[in-house]
């Protein structure tokens, strides 16, 4: 059996038939196709987009015990990305 490339997987008939891929409109990236979850969270399923680059950085650093001044240095130096604001449509997939 040949090894498939990522492009081959996107067009794989078996993966399409079993509903492996989920397509949705991302508010900033356009149409995305990602692997669907192998389980459901109730009737509604999961309806939240993955975080944008830096969207949760500040919260995670605070939870890890970094001070505001330390976080400012990390963000200011470019060592950490911090999203400016969430898009209003982020919670709906």
Helix-strand blueprint:
Blueprint: H1 6-10, H2 13-17, E1 21-26, E2 30-35, H3 57-63, H4 68-77
Antiparallel strand pairs: 1-2
What is the tally of helical segments?
A: 4
Termini gap: 36 Å
Helix content: 25-40%
Strand content: 5-15%
Low-confidence region ranges: 86-93
Category from helices, strands and their pairing = alpha+beta
Could you name the key traits of this structure?
alpha+beta, elongated
Could you please describe the fold and organization of this structure?
With 93 residues, the protein is an alpha+beta fold. Helices cover 29% and strands 13% of the residues. It is built from 4 helices and 2 strands, in the order ααββαα. Strands 1-2 form a two-stranded antiparallel sheet. Residues 86-93 have low confidence and may be disordered.
